[in-house]
Amino acid sequence: MIAIVDYGAGNLVSVKKAVDWLGQECTITSDPAQVEKATRIILPGVGHFASTAALGRTGLQDAISDAIRRDVPFLGICVGMQWMFERSQESLETAGLGLLAGECERFPENVKSPHVGWNDLEIAPSSPLFRGVSSKSFVYFTHSFRVPLTETTVARCEYGGEFSAAVERDRSFGVQFHPEKSGEIGLKLLNNFCSL
Length: 196
Fold this sequence. Notes:
The protein is of the alpha/beta class. The chain has one domain: Rossmann fold (3-Layer(aba) Sandwich). It contains 6 helices and 13 strands. The chain has helices at residues 12-21, 32-37, 53-58, 60-69, 79-82, 183-194; strands at 2-5, 26-29, 40-43, 74-77, 87-88, 103-106, 115-120, 122-123, 138-143, 145-146, 153-158, 162-169, 172-175. The mean pLDDT is 96.
């Protein structure tokens, strides 16, 4: 069972519809016990980084951390990816998971923010998440903050300078774009995640 984590912020129904379309068994849940039992975990995210504080208050953060330690595949989407890092300039008083080192930053003032719409990716060929997806594929973004390039970057995008469009460590993955809104490419990526 794939757990789609509900913490009061996220594009839950669209993600579930995409996973259902792939024929995968999934559920939207805010129950830490159900997250603990999941075979895969997806953490969607829309809106302000401060909304992720609810993960700590509800026990969901502990359940996700424990699952990651047990090597359960995890996918953070948009704010869900940003939460994998230590913090974000959007809400410095809200701690991230700290699974990955670094801080999310605002786009520079010389570009329109939020970054909304389709943009292409430069993809690392070794990433299992992007298996069968070629560089220059277009995906859909909507965000005002971004993760700089790090050693965990497996896909990059150019908008006001390069930033991390996707990150990866072991069986934990994050994507800044919305695969559930990215057509065939997004479905391919979600299918790759579901088959890890």
